[in-house]
Design brief:
Elements: H1 3-22, H2 35-38, H3 47-58, H4 61-74, H5 81-106, H6 111-119, H7 122-153, H8 160-163, H9 165-181, H10 184-211, H11 215-227, H12 243-257, H13 261-268, H14 273-282, H15 284-294, H16 296-303, E1 308-309, E2 316-317, H17 321-329, H18 332-370, H19 376-400, H20 403-418, H21 421-424, H22 435-454, E3 470-472, E4 490-492, H23 493-514
Helix pairs in contact: 1-9, 1-10, 1-18, 3-10, 3-13, 3-14, 3-18, 4-7, 4-16, 4-18, 5-12, 5-14, 5-15, 6-7, 7-18, 7-19, 7-20, 9-19, 10-18, 11-16, 12-20, 13-18, 17-18, 18-19, 20-23, 22-23
Length: 544
């Protein structure tokens, strides 16, 4: 048991717990018994709050644990996270502004709300809602993977259900203050989380390399390690087989990130178009920190850091690489701060993700199919209860399922959420696609993507199915025809599935238009996409 680290960690964790409960009175509106107030913070967050909130949502504990762990294990491939977060913001700059505007006018809370308003189809909206919920669940579970890595490094986590008790306590506390304060809790805590992360990374990137002979020596040690492995795709440089996969994974991840429900939740909570524009300009500052953080995977190689062996599976848990690096090379008190930064970094996105999933359930399932005339207070209560279910469902993933399976599920989630891009993002600019085309595209893209993922094996870890998202082109087939022969060049499955989705959507749309099939009703008009913070909108009403 690392007592100094544990005490520092506990003090900082207690601080954010108090902040979580106090947040209920921070920038308080007329009532929290309304989804606009509980689930979107009253839609009035300014530039600084939005910057910390969205940054805390996108750059999660798992990001800060898994990216350097991937660099440690696979080398340059793990660096895809940097170009992906660089190209992300120019791509989403204008679509997010348009989404905010139309959502302000119509009171939309979720991307499925927008789809229903755009196409007048509750079935298409239901597909978008279910996709968002299913893709978000393992994402929340992965925050627990990051938190558990820290707990293991402090000696707090063992095997069996009782070994997960500290994790369970942490999430009970998270559930309670999120239930009370809604989105205001992670928004306020994000200030502490991000400040701690910046301090830890800036110290680590200066202090640790100086201990191991500088960056030149660190890169030499990393290359020597990769040269000694039988795997041909690792190394400090990309190879001929993984360059395409690297590029398509970065592009696919960039296209997917802001159509995740939790990403849009942070955007819709801001008070104006200018706030979003400023944030798209300023958020790449996190990418700089992420790039520095990724290099800690190479530092761990040079330091001789060994991952902790998972008692349940008997395999080394590479997610513990960064906590172990910090624990063995920082003074105990500063290692405690670093562990707290990662641990708190799990709570902020987990809270936002659970709120986003709860909003989808409430607005697009409960109110649409169970209780159409639910009052604002009933909606808010249903969302609070749903957020609890989602959180403890994520805990169940960790307790009863191999955490590695949760990681694989998150890869699947990324492929899934990409299939909502035509209905959510492209629909912001054109209504050319027919609703039948979008539904058919979703079905074929989702089905083909899952089939491809199912057939990806990794003998190194003993998995025959769902062992990653990198697909050799030689395994792409169309009715038995292999257009790329036996090529070993890899590509990201999500991009392939999205291409199939769009192709089917275009074909079905052309057929439907030729047959003059009714395409639903559109509740938006061009002016809805250009409103600002002074324009009228659907406002919260007092709870019954």
């Amino acid at each position: 048991m690392q007592w100094t680290e544990l005490i520092v960690f506990s003090v900082l964790f207690l601080l954010v717990t108090v902040m979580g409960f106090v947040a209920a009175k921070w920038q308080k509106g007329d009532t929290l018994e309304h989804l606009d107030e509980w689930g979107l913070g009253g839609r009035k967050f300014g530039s600084w709050i939005t910057w910390f909130l969205v940054g805390g949502d996108l750059y999660t504990a798992y990001t800060f644990v898994a990216v350097p762990a991937l660099m440690f294990g696979a080398g340059a491939t793990g660096f895809f996270a940097l170009p992906y977060t660089v190209i992300l913001y120019p791509i989403v700059f204008l679509p997010l502004v348009r989404m905010w505007s139309v959502s302000r006018v119509h009171g939309y809370v979720t991307p499925a709300d927008f789809v229903k308003g755009r196409y007048g189809s509750h079935w298409l909206a239901l597909l978008i809602a279910i996709t968002g919920i299913v893709a978000t669940m393992p994402y929340i579970a992965l925050q627990l993977v990051g938190l558990e890595a820290v707990l293991r490094s402090m000696g707090l986590n063992g095997s069996g259900i009782l070994g997960h008790l500290p994790l369970f306590i942490a999430f009970v506390i998270l559930a309670l203050y999120t239930y009370q304060s809604g989105l205001r809790a992670p928004a306020l805590i994000a200030f502490v989380k991000d400040i701690l992360i910046y301090i830890v990374i800036l110290v680590a990137i200066v202090y640790l390399p100086s201990k191991f002979g500088g960056w030149g020596e660190i890169f030499n040690d990393a290359q020597a390690k990769f040269d000694a492995t039988p795997v041909k795709t690792d190394g400090v440089l990309l190879t001929g087989t993984n360059q395409l996969q690297y590029a398509t994974l970065a592009l696919g991840s960039a296209l997917a990130l802001f159509i995740y429900p939790h990403s849009l939740t942070g955007i819709l909570a801001s008070r104006g178009r200018n706030v979003i524009k400023r944030n798209m300009v300023a958020l790449p500052a996190y990418s700089l920190v992420l790039g520095l953080l990724a290099l800690l995977g190479y530092v761990a190689i040079s330091a001789g850091t060994k991952p902790i062996v998972n008692q349940a599976t008997g395999r080394p848990d590479t997610n513990t690489i960064v906590p172990e690096l910090f624990g063995h090379n920082f003074p105990s008190w500063f290692a405690g701060i670093a562990f707290a930064a990662i641990g708190i970094g799990a709570l902020v996105p987990a809270a936002i993700m659970s709120i986003a999933a709860a909003n989808l359930w409430t607005r697009n399932v409960y109110k649409e199919y169970i209780k159409k005339h639910a009052t604002p207070a009933e909606e808010a209560k249903q969302a609070k209860l749903a957020s609890l279910v989602v959180k403890f469902g994520a805990v169940a993933f960790i307790v009863f399922v191999d955490p590695q399976f949760s990681i694989d599920l998150q890869l699947i989630g990324g492929v899934m959420i990409l299939q909502t891009l035509p209905a959510v993002a492209i629909a912001l600019y054109t209504r050319w696609f027919h609703v039948y085309g979008l539904v058919a595209g979703w079905i074929f893209g989702m089905g083909y993507g899952m089939w491809l993922l199912y057939n990806i094996a990794n003998p190194n870890v003993g998995k025959q199915h769902f062992a990653g998202s990198a697909l050799p082109l030689g395994k792409l087939s169309l009715f038995g025809w292999h257009p790329f022969g036996n090529s070993a060049v890899q590509i990201y499955v999500g991009i392939v599935a999205l291409a199939v989705n769009l192709l089917v959507a275009v074909i079905v749309t052309l057929i439907a238009k030729k047959a003059k099939v009714f395409n639903g009703t559109d509740q938006t008009d061009p002016s809805d996409y250009h409103v600002d913070e002074d324009s009228p909108r659907v406002k919260p009403v007092a709870a019954h």
